[in-house]
Write a structure and sequence with these properties.
The complex is a heterodimer. Chain A contains 12 helices and 26 strands. Chain B has one domain: Ubiquitin-like (UB roll) (Roll). The mean pLDDT of chain B is 93. The chains are: A alpha/beta, B alpha+beta. Chains A and B meet through helix 1, helix 9, strand 22 and helix 10 of A and helix 2 of B.
Chain lengths: 406, 106
């Protein structure tokens, strides 16, 4: 039984069948849709380029074809580990032999008065984006609260549609939690050139309006007029079921490398877990497709009695305007950066090193640097800064030479 | 609807009807054809949807972009007709297209 029908839950179910698992598989989701991709929600689904049927990971029939029972619109409200049962909203109880928690995360709510006004949105689900899209035809001025990936991707999409956009961010720079000052500066310039306004080191104090939102008031008293607000201020792992059931939870459901929780009959995968980050010697929570898919692969392999795959270096991507940002590794703790290529030409990579070893990279429109760098990080490779920045050689040659010298 | 034949590395064939406008990758993933991972869902961000276009069709699947080329360079067992299948858009002209799948995407 899999609780949570997002990408991690869906992947677990499909993988179980691909690995030849023949037992019954039930996939229970709170949302009214079969598992779908979340990354396009703030990109091609928001712009309208990607219709709902292409957002779905598989068409709904594909689950029945694989003999997977899919229960949609069915929140699980109670987990009884002693009796090995879950209870759905409405009272229906279902027994399990092995349970996979793939409960994901929820968008952090705006902690200000007026957050419940019509025209104020969070962006986490397809339904959220449907609601935003329904207002984009008439809206002229958007305020985006939070300059993380969700906020900046949203700003890029609606700016291209012609709306006026102001992004409010509490930190002094965009993407402050996820990347370096150099990359923040690059994306700030890109969005500013596209006509997006920024209020940095600024905090929303109140959202004003009567029938619907009319303005966002900042702590310093400034008022930004708008007719639609989208907030992307982070997500909170959905661990309430696990906590109430007494599983070990610390910034996510604690799991080992094999997706096992503190209960041998229960695995957990995706956004809701804190797991060993084997390339970095610590535990942490990852909010990404890579993590969702990998967790699904590992849990499915364990349940099917097969060897789990080795962990990949964490990776991620973001699309803004004509830029494809690809990220490998976790940059925290770097002591040196190396630039390769040209930010002015919107084609470059920034490498993060710690004590001479490559630990992470951000690549803008540079696929080779992303894939090659990811391999170097995986191997814990030490690379000379001068080699990384040498544009006279293709990156694949640089990678090969660096791997040979380890 | 255009029919596309996917041939697994083992030789097993899958003939799938893929709506025009979708990609060759989507046709495989949405019908549980094993051998195409497409982790990123078609964003040209991961290079796990590598296929070999049948040489008879190689000229008709469009040009690959610089981004696709630079990513393909890191795929396993690349051949002259290698493509990332998320970057091949299905049209009526591709009815009958044949693609082979590599042994592994990683």
């Amino acid at each position: 039984m899999i609780v949570g029908a997002g990408q991690a839950g869906g992947e677990t179910a499909i993988r179980l069948r691909q690995l030849g698992y023949a037992g019954p598989v039930t996939l229970i989701g709170e949302e009214p849709l079969p598992p779908y991709q979340r990354p396009p929600l703030s990109k091609a689904y928001l712009s309208g380029a990607l219709p709902l049927e292409r957002l779905l990971l598989k068409p709904e029939e594909a689950y029945a074809e694989e003999n997977i029972v899919l229960l949609k619109g069915a929140p699980v409200v109670w987990l009884d580990r002693a009796q090995k049962r879950v209870r759905l909203q409405g009272g229906r109880e279902l027994p399990y032999e092995t349970l996979v928690l793939a409960t994901g995360s929820r968008a952090r709510a705006l902690p200000v008065a007026g957050a419940d006004l019509p025209g104020v949105h969070l962006l986490r689900s397809a339904a959220d984006v449907d609601a935003i899209r329904a207002e984009l035809g008439t809206a002229r001025r958007m305020v985006v609260i939070g300059a993380g990936y969700i906020g900046l991707e949203t700003a890029a999409v609606v700016r291209k549609m012609g709306l006026e956009v102001t992004v409010i961010e509490a930190a002094p720079r965009p993407l402050a939690r996820v990347t370096s000052p150099e990359m923040s500066g690059f994306f700030l310039d890109v969005h500013t050139a596209a006509g997006v306004r920024f209020a940095l080191s600024a905090q929303a104090a109140v959202i004003k309006g009567d029938e619907r939102v009319r303005a966002v008031g900042l702590v310093d008293g400034e008022e930004i007029p708008c007719d639609i607000v989208v907030a992307g201020i982070g997500i909170i792992p959905e661990t309430s079921l696990a906590e109430a059931a007494g599983l070990h939870v610390h910034n996510g459901i604690t799991v080992d490398r094999f997706a096992r929780t503190s209960d041998p009959a229960i695995y957990a995968v995706g956004d809701c877990v804190s797991r060993p980050l084997v390339h970095y010697g610590r535990e942490g929570r990852l909010e990404s497709v890579h993590n969702a898919i990998e967790g699904g692969k590992i849990a499915a392999a364990m349940i099917a009695g097969q060897p789990p795959p080795a962990e990949e270096v964490p990776w991620f991507w973001s699309d803004q305007y004509d830029l494809k940002l690809q990220i490998a590794g976790l940059f925290n703790g770097y002591d040196e950066t190396v630039l390769r290529g040209s930010p002015a030409e919107r084609s470059f990579a920034l490498f993060y090193l710690k004590e001479g070893r490559l630990i992470a990279l951000d690549a803008v429109n540079r696929g080779a640097e992303f894939l090659g760098g990811k391999r170097l990080i995986e191997k814990g490779a030490s690379v000379a800064p001068a080699a990384l920045s040498d544009m006279s050689k293709p990156f694949k040659d640089i990678m090969t030479a660096a791997l040979a010298s380890q | 609807m255009p029919k596309i034949t996917y041939i697994e590395a083992s030789g097993k064939e899958h003939v799938i009807e893929v709506p025009a406008g979708q990609t060759v990758m989507e046709g495989a993933v949405k019908h549980n054809v094993p051998g195409i991972d497409a982790d990123c869902g078609g964003a040209c961000a991961c290079a796990t949807c590598h296929v070999y276009v049948d040489p008879a069709w190689a000229g008709r699947t469009g040009e690959s972009t610089g981004m696709e080329q630079s990513m393909l360079d890191f795929a396993n067992d690349v051949e002259p007709t290698s493509r990332l299948s998320c970057q091949i858009k299905v049209t009526a002209d591709l009815d009958g297209l044949v693609v082979r799948l590599p042994k592994s995407q990683h």
